[in-house]
Amino acid sequence: MSAIRFGIVGCGHISKKHVSAIQQLEDADLVAVCDSDLDRANSFVEQNNIAVYSDYDEFIHDNKIDAVIICTPSGLHASMGEKAALGGKHLLIEKPFVLDLKDGNKLVEVCKQQGVKLGVVHPNRMKPAVQALHRAIKDNWFGKITHVNATLRWNRNSNYFKSAAWRGTREYDGGILLNQAIHNIDLLNWLVGPVEEVFAYGTTRLRDIEVEDVCVSSLRLQNEALGIIESAITLYPENLEETLSIFGSEGTAVLGGKTLSRIQEWKFSCLSENDALKQVEEINSRKINVGHNEIVRDFVSAVLNERDPLVSGEEALKTIQLILSIYNSIDNHVPVKVKEMCM
C-alpha cells in the first residue's frame, strides 16, 4: 500500500481540516465523503473529484476506501466506528472518542480483532507550546509539581445550540466536558496525570440545554499534586481564554490564549531569564494551526508502518474515563476515584 485512501463521514466544519491535511500528504488521498445532507456532501465534489454518499452502509462498503475519518455527532462515533471496523476500514475518530466506556472498550477490541488501526483526534497535543511543555515535564524542569489548573472560559450562545439539533443533548453531545473542554482536560491528564480522585459541581445556569454549561472540579493526582478544572461556555460576550497552568518547586508554566496556543509564563530554575525569553519567543513564533495536519500525518504513517497512532483508542479512553468520573461526582455529590470507573 503506497497511499491511504480516505473516506470522511460527516461534512461539517471540522471535516474541512481533515480535507486540508489529506491534500498536503503525498501518501494520502480523499476518495469519498458521506453525509445525510447530500447538499453538504456535494460541496466537496467539485474541489476533490470524489464519490459522494448519503447512505453510511453503502459508504463503508466502498472498496476504494482504506480508512474512515468520523466527524459526526459524538453520540454516533461508537456505532459508526464499529460498522467501519467490521468492514475492514482503519479508523480516525474526532473527539470525543466515545461517550461511554463500554462502547469505547468494545470498539477498541473490534479494531484489534479486525486488524485495523484506531486513532483519535486530539490535535492540541501537537501544538508547539504543548510539545515544549511536554519536554519540560519529561526532563523534570518543574521539580516537584505542586498543583495544576486547566481553565476553559468560552462562549457558546443560544444560536450555537440552535445550529444543530444534536448540540446540547445528553445523547449526542455529552456535555461541555466531552465537547468543548475535552482538549484541555486531555492535555492535563496526558501531561501530569493520571488523576486519582475528583470532586465536582456542574450546573446549567444560562443555556437552554440538557447538559451543564458551567463545571468546576477539584482533583488529586496520583503523584499527590492537586488540581482544578474550570469549564464554562457562559462567558460574555465571547471566548475569553483556554489556559493550562503547571506549578512546581523549580518551575512555573502557563499556556494560554483564547485557544491555548501560546506560552504566557515560562520560568524555571534551570534556565536564565534571558534563555527562557528566547525559548518563549522562538516557540510562540511557530505556526500553531498544525494539529490536524500532524494527527493525520501520524495516522497515515501508523497504517503504512504497522504501528499504533500517536493517540490510540486506549489512550483516548483515559481522558473519557476522567471526564465520566467528573460527571459521576456531579451526579452523586461525592468524591470519585477515577480508577474505579469501569474500563
Question: Topology of this structure?
Answer:
Layout: E1 4-9, H1 15-23, E2 28-34, H2 38-42, H3 45-48, E3 51-53, H4 56-60, E4 67-70, H5 77-86, E5 90-94, H6 101-114, E6 118-121, H7 128-138, E7 145-153, H8 158-162, H9 176-179, H10 182-192, E8 195-203, E9 214-221, E10 226-232, E11 241-248, E12 251-256, E13 262-268, H11 273-284, H12 291-304, H13 313-332, E14 336-337
Parallel strand pairs: 1-2, 1-4, 2-3, 4-5, 5-6, 7-10
Antiparallel strand pairs: 7-11, 8-9, 8-14, 9-10, 11-12, 12-13
Structure summary:
With 343 residues, the protein is an alpha/beta fold.
Q: Mind explaining what this structure looks like?
A:
This protein has 343 residues and is of the alpha/beta class. It has 2 domains: 139 residues, Rossmann fold, CATH 3.40.50; 179 residues, Dihydrodipicolinate Reductase, domain 2 (2-Layer Sandwich), CATH 3.30.360.10. 36% of the residues lie in helices and 25% in strands. It is built from 13 helices and 14 strands. The strands form 2 sheets. It has an 8-stranded mixed β-sheet. It has a 6-stranded parallel β-sheet with strand order 3-2-1-4-5-6, with helices on both faces. A hairpin with a 2-residue loop joins strand 11 and strand 12. The longest helix has 20 residues. The protein is globular and about 55 Å long. The protein starts with a strand and ends in a 6-residue tail after the last strand.
